[in-house]
Amino acid sequence: xxxxxxxxxxxxLFWLGIQAVxxxxxxxSLQARTIExxxxxxxxxxxxxxxxxxxxxxxxxxxxGIWSDARRAGRSRRIEFYVIGAVVGAGxxxxxxxxxxxxxxTVAFVVLQAGLNVAIGPYQAIIPDFVxxxxxxxxxSWMAALQGAGNAIGALAASFIGSARxxxxxxxxxxxxxxxxxxxxxxxxxxxxAAAQRGPVPITRAFVDLFISxxxxxxxxxxxxxxxxxxxxxxxxxxxxxxxKRETGILIITFTLVGTLGAWLAARPSDRLDKxxxxxxxxxxxxxxxxxxxxxxxxxxxxxxxLLAGLGWGVFLVxxxxxxxRVLPAGAMAAAMGVWNLAVVGPQIIAPLVTTLVLQGLGLAxxxxxxxxxxxxxxxxxxxxxxxxxxxxxxxxx
Length: 398
Fold this sequence. Notes:
By secondary structure, the protein is mainly α. It has one domain (about 10-390): Up-down Bundle (Growth Hormone, Chain: A), CATH 1.20.1250.20. About 80% of the residues lie in helices and about 0% in strands. It contains 14 helices and no strands. The protein has helices spanning about 10-40, 40-75, 80-100, 100-125, 125-130, 135-160, 165-185, 205-235, 240-270, 275-295, 300-325, 335-340, 340-360, 370-385. Helix 6 runs antiparallel to helix 9 and helix 10 runs antiparallel to helix 11. It is globular.
């Protein structure tokens, strides 16, 4: 017997597993493993590795999204994509944390990006697949909250689990377990009716404006995330790499846990108020936090900035999900999500590339370099949240 009322927690739980992986990899482990295996030119090497992985993610999401929508038209619940992505991702994690050369690390990271992105595009269509329009804000709040919780779990694991083999196995187990719970829930639910979209994804003006806004906001986010460990080393003066990893992990955990609170606070307003306003409130909090980071000289100031950033980001994520569920075409949701997610994957390329060019052009190093990076992040975020107002009230479903 199929259920009509979904459990938002169970639908969103796989997002916790996916984000636990990214919280560990993109927040701490990719930077730390690059430093360990690449030599003194690690900043440039890190940018190249992050860019390569992002390209693989973008291509995978678009191809798999189109395939997933074709299967959705035949009444598929897309569960097969979740399972394949989780299994490949768990295997790649084991290789990533046991790599002994930079070449092996690169291969493992590319396979991890490909595997997880087989699942991510189809999975991000889960709200329009199973949740009615009037509850998308509440469902999105669960996605945002568990994203924050997952990032915290990943950062905590990467900061304090000393054994690489145990760390990879633990993250893989979380990924597989959360996938199993979400897949079981999706199997029990009735699919929403959605007309199959023939041909390419329709790109409307609203879609383009949402995409551009998201590119700028996520460029700000990834600049903060990618350069936080370098900030802790250069500005806060961590004694060594191990200390820098622990302090960075604490900041990321704080960010994500407070982000869960922000998501909870934004749930009801996102269903009742103008979603553009909610997104702007969250973005404004993130911008203020970046300004505090730039002006801080010690861990106390960085913690205050992290609290503000986490709260703002949690609020923004809820509105971001809710707006996408209204703007993107229902009949081609996974393919559209694949295109939409280029606004997340693209900044993973843009953030380190632009920041590296600016730092090299200005000849900045030491404490000045991460502060300049955060200044770029502030400007990028400001443009992104301002761009949202090109969407009309009717288009965002307010």
